[in-house]
Amino acid sequence: MKSFKIKYPLLFVCIFTIYACDRTPGDRISESDSLPAIEPDYTGITIPENIAPLNFIIKEKGSAFYTEIFDGSKDVIKIKSNSGLIKIPRRKWKNLLQTDEFKDITVDVYVKNKVEGWKRFRSITNHISPDPVDPYITYRLIYPGYESWNELSICQRSLGNFSEWNIIKNSAAEENCINCHSYNNGKTDDFLFHMRGSLAGTYFYSGQEFKKVNLKTKEMKNGAVYPRWHPSGKFVAFSSNKIIQQFHSLDNQKIEVSDLESSLVLYDITKNEMLPVIFPDMEKYMDTYPEWSPDGNNIFFCRAIQIADTFDYNLIRYNLMRASFNRDKRTFGIPEMIFDAASMNKSISFPRISPDGRYVVVTLHDYGCFPIWHKEADLWSIDMETKMAKPLALNSDFTDSYHSWSSNGRWMVFSSRRDDGLATRLYLSYMYTDCTSGKPFILPVKNPAFYERFMKSYNIPEFSEIKVKPVPGKIRKISRSGAIQTGWDSD
Known about the structure:
Structural class: mainly beta
Distance between the termini: 101 Å
Shape: elongated
CATH topology of the largest domain: Neuraminidase
Low-confidence stretches: 1-21
Number of helices: 4
Helix content: under 10%
CATH architecture of the largest domain: 6 Propeller
Largest sheet: 7 strands, mixed
CATH class of the largest domain: Mainly Beta
CATH superfamily of the largest domain: TolB, C-terminal domain
Number of domains: 2
């Protein structure tokens, strides 16, 4: 027994040492000229210094996997794995990324197999930007079809870690459709969303309190959608649309959403008044998707020629317009065309202006105003000084749309169907000062295998500097109350 007690611990130590060495590369390592196959594709990207760990899966065949992450000046992050799943310790990752200037980090991947032993792949080099991304992002989660909305949620996510929470889940509101969420600049907790169905209304949130408003007055033919807050926080611009859905039996597009008519309206929050946005000859056009300049002195929007009773949906094309705004008088100037997409046999949607006002990024597609099912939809930038337009390098062969600028103008988040052509995922890309884009990367998650089994789509991503606390009880209570009726001012 005495002899056994001495030998057993030694045997255990020997076995443990052999096992540990087997999971760590030794001196005999072969070299590969190719980059390792990893998912997601976190290679050659620029990332913010405050992003959550970019966990990934090594897709090379092997029995053991090992990764080192370093920047040349700090401790190396060393990760062993039996499955190829690489989860990066958050604290070490945060320390590694801290920087006051651009720097590179290196990711070395080693894989062991029975034939070659340990092999090291070509180093991955990623770039760290000292420009932080906004700490939060808000989006709607919905199944990628179009026939059901019984399970919807508007969620907020921390970009510095993997925390996600529901701002509103429609199970708390009789499973009604919730959509069109929008922030007041992302710098306050002022927030709104629409609800359709039995508890219909526009829900405004401020100071952890909700109010339910009926924005549609008897003078309005159609409801108010597609909100954009004025930078002052005193107004919200909407478009008032009559919308139809068309389902295709032969076309590659699954569904087409078209406007039969649309115009802009302005909501004065303080006075609880809705005003029509009056333009010359406005009955000849359909105006939609408003967007404010950062100084609030101009409104941008998309305009198409008013369709007739019978129309060909694939001939409807929208151009980008701009009109001045007098906030004291609540009046608008004569619109001017900024970008003639129709001359290219194209149409635009979702104009979003950079925080410095220099660039407008739009979704460019073949026709219509709702491109999320258009495979050809891409993001284009328009230089407001030269009026020159160009596609962004972040585009893919599938739908790229629903984009939003960070508050410092250095990051863009957008939704893309590039993974499987069906579900939309959120991608981030660094935006240089000339509005060129870096290689995009998918929103990091704790377990990178998550996207393979998650069936919902992300849409309408919006950056935010403020965390909106979940208040399902307050939403449930206010949803069952009567809505505050908005007044109408046509003077």
